[in-house]
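ARCHIVE CARD
Drawer: 12
Card no.: 0347
Subject: one protein chain, sequence and derived structure
Cross-reference: see card 0346
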Amino acid sequence: MTLNLSQKEAELCFPQLNNSCKKRTRPHSESVIIYTLLPSFSLLTVSLNLLVIISISHFRQLHTSTNLLLLSLAVSDFCVGLLVVPFQILLSEPCWLLGDLACILCSILPYISAPAIAVNMVLISVDRYVAICDPLRYSTKITPKRVKICVLLCWIYSVFYNLLFLFNNLKQLGKYNSCYGECVINVMGAVDLILRFIIPTTSIIILYTRVFVVAVSQARSMRSHIAAVKLQRSKTVTVKKSELKAARTLGVVVAVFLVCYCPYYGISLAGYELMTGSLTHIFMFFLVIFNSCLNPVIYAFFYPWFRKTVKLIVTLEILQPHSRQANVL
């Protein structure tokens, strides 16, 4: 009798409380993902995005409107690796032992950068839309000052977006917990789905569909008239080619974003609820981390300047005088 009582107590998060949650048994595969893969990708995400942040911030040649948006996206991805992953590992523990207030703070505050990722993707799509569809007025429409204002508004929106969920859950601590040792928050799923997925995704798809149509049209036009292009217009053609290449690269970034985020929100659209800490939830979260880790890898494949700057950073040549003026393009 005493042995059975001890076993039951060992299965509870708080044996001294009547309404204690039972400790959830974790499969070995789940433990491998949580304690091996997630920390590894977290470290890789932080390292790679830090290289992007240093590159664009340090070298003057990279201080362009498009790269400012890439810098903002890199900061978002950096925060995901640095803040979101450690707290997600903590939240996936079989029992929550830190109290209701810590549950809310750990569930919401680390995700401040998450809405910024979606908004940055929309801003990148707008940038490419103007560059391809209205190239003659791109330099007047998309100025560094305007981009900085947009990036600032993006982060202000992201902060207030998370504070909305924070205050909603602070009204009554532990309201959504069914037992002691559980960490459940209300994320207002419909609002989150519309603001962070449906609206940004729809905007991105519409803009890039238009970019794709115009880009294909311009590519065909350049191929058919390349023999008749005069020397005076050769620079214009080169600019168009570079813009098309940038559109293709950033199109890959946007496509990867959609592939990684669609499964999570697709489940929400289907009406299913993900249990925090479940294997499905962890896999969906892993896709989000994978997206933040993959963006710098895409830059490395498509942008020669990123490969050059990484070499300068790793070899510590950026510590040399006048390294900011180095030719990396």
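Annotation on reverse: Residues 1-7, 229-239 have pLDDT under 50 and may be disordered. Residues 189-225 form the longest helix (37 residues).
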